[in-house]
């Protein structure tokens, strides 16, 4: 019992550090929208200054020579806090403020760049060796409870953090600045309109967060562990777990969660080091794995309830370059690689082989982060998992089977990590993957129960009994091994190129662009993400296996978290959205060609990690598509100039200069209206207290065009969302006589219920043709296998027919988002049509079309219906609706107030009343609704 109390006090101290960091993460997030992975790193720098001041009497600020100064303790604390404040100012001005509207991925990556820059900068300025930290808080009064002497400084620290957290909570709740932070977090645009400056709010939050964390770090002394450049910064992982448990919002819950995590990990330390019944395999690293377990559970249980933060403006991710595997480019790049392998020796050849192997790890980022938009910080852990697996099975299995099995082990781990990604995305996934990387490093790679403490030797690959030793005597990279790596990397890169330009690649890009629209285009979003995780971790595993051969031996730090963050940094700097970017990144990779050059010829290897962090920040700020993207743009400009000086810009489909005459009236199509193809009974949609759709019955017959009209807010879109499975609803929905009420959106789409969206919802990275085509492809593992061998397959007839019907075939190769709004809507209709639906729901398809295009669209709609498809049309253009629809349903406040033929409905007094109010009713009766509809 007394040990329990001792560890409870120790745990409260540790928990206090976690809590203070976690509260800072929450305050920064609410004020700036950035989950700051460098929060602990920013406070670590002042701890070094404080440590030098108190232990050596030296003021050693970054970039400046040390000064002899022996200040009293309060002055030393004050100097450290001032440094913390200056760091916050600098980070705000140089990084977070310029990135305020950048995509979430960019902001996460920038804070990782900051983490790397600070930790590597500390290493250069203060050295990488461990430093002891002296207690700062008083050791009195001595507290003895139940015979246990409790650690008083840790209890003081816990008390201080509780007070600081309460003060922060009061500040947020009661002060003008606190109100501004809360307003900005809810709706930055509205806050800005109300006169609140988002920039000032962001700075004040960051300042408060950094200074309070600095104070706690400085006073915590040995509670934060030994002082090394990376140990205190890595406290960010348990702190992120606590912040998530507080839903990135509640200071109180965050405080409690941090304290609880601290206490739990102290108790784990106690039990695992003392109790004989504690399993041997769980004696090392379990405390480090705890935050991962907590984060996964927290995100799984309440991932969707963690609030996003609305920015004033948002910018999309850099666009993806779909690889073409052009023969000339492949031959030139492969030739260059071969020359590098054959033309180098010694340490340079080692650099070449490292670059080649790293290319596969960089490709793993291109697949997962570039193509699918999922941020993973665990790619090095996957590489390491394969490396460690290879050290165990490399002797038992021949090459390449051993390498493939090892990579499959990494892939299995990747799929496990991908499971939480089905419920979460963006920065939350970055947090899970960071925690996973730390857990794998500490609990698996550094655990003697799973690895060999004497060294995890990786046996040389042997091909048909011929051993290809990676090293031989003093040769650190043999030519045969380099050629083997070259061959593997070339084949795998070509296969990845095939996958990215095939249907799997289109599914990836669709999911990255818009998950809801992808789901209703029949794409299984969950399966697509899992496939991406599997492929990406498999690639990381292959790269890790090849790297492990070159190393010969692995230890716990070989594929640690910081290695992983460095991989991400170079992948981003090279260009995370293209294979060319991965090639550039592999040249920049740790121990790769450039590194060897910097080390050998410039004697600057110690600057490499710092340069990596800084370059990452600069890339995020200046050039999100990386070096490869910039190169491609420059090349484009150059070739345009050579072709005659024309500017290269996105292709746009311009409408005709002068509006052509309206098309001839559609020759009367013989439309046979068949039996009921769609039926909704008692459909009701509630948003909290509001009944948006109230027990609506609606029926559409095959070949019939049914209009659903009503004033703004009547519930039309909610009804379509309900029947297509995009919002919760009561009632029954049947398609072709089969009830589909319980099916999800994707299954409803597969059953033949297609829809278009009010806001186009196209896939921005795909061309017009691919936006349509992607809805006809099934993807999955079968698609992956087909893509690998034959990525260019014939386009389905329904796709070409839909493009032709909507007159989009002449602009099929243009990027969909470069079209006018009206034409984008037509692409949405074509996509729905290509799925060969029985029933088509069109949500305001004519908004954005001019009168000529609208008249054409009316004809198109009749043609669609004449093929037997039931159509439900929502539109405010009454001219179109009255002209084209066979029957109309009129909604008001969620209820159907009229049903009938257009000529009946337009004379219905309730309808006239609903549209215009009673005063104007009689006037309109004479002019007709059509005029009013057109005016709208
Ligand atoms: N996600 C939501 N949460 C809460 N209320 C909602 C939500 N979506 C819609 N509403 C409300 O439900 C009602 C119906 O909205 P809906 O968008 O379905 O109407 P609509 O007829 O499609 O309007 P419009 O013609 O302007 O598109 C409105 O009062 C709207 O404010």
Automatic annotation (TrEMBL):
Residues 650-661 have a biased composition (Low complexity). PANTHER family: ABC TRANSPORTER ATP-BINDING PROTEIN, CONSERVED COMPONENT OF ABC TRANSPORTER FOR NATURAL AMINO ACIDS-RELATED. This is Branched-chain amino acid ABC transporter permease/ATP-binding protein. InterPro entries: AAA+_ATPase, ABC_AA/LPS_Transport, ABC_transp_permease, ABC_transporter-like_ATP-bd, BCA_ABC_TP_C, LivM-like, P-loop_NTPase. Residues 645-666 are annotated as: Disordered. The chain crosses the membrane at residues 73-96, 108-128, 155-173, 201-220, 252-270, 290-306, 327-344, 350-368, 399-419, 481-500, 530-549, 579-598, 605-622. Its main location: membrane. The lineage of its organism: Bacteria, Bacillati, Actinomycetota, Actinomycetes, Propionibacteriales. The keyword Transmembrane helix applies. SMART domains: AAA (SM00382).
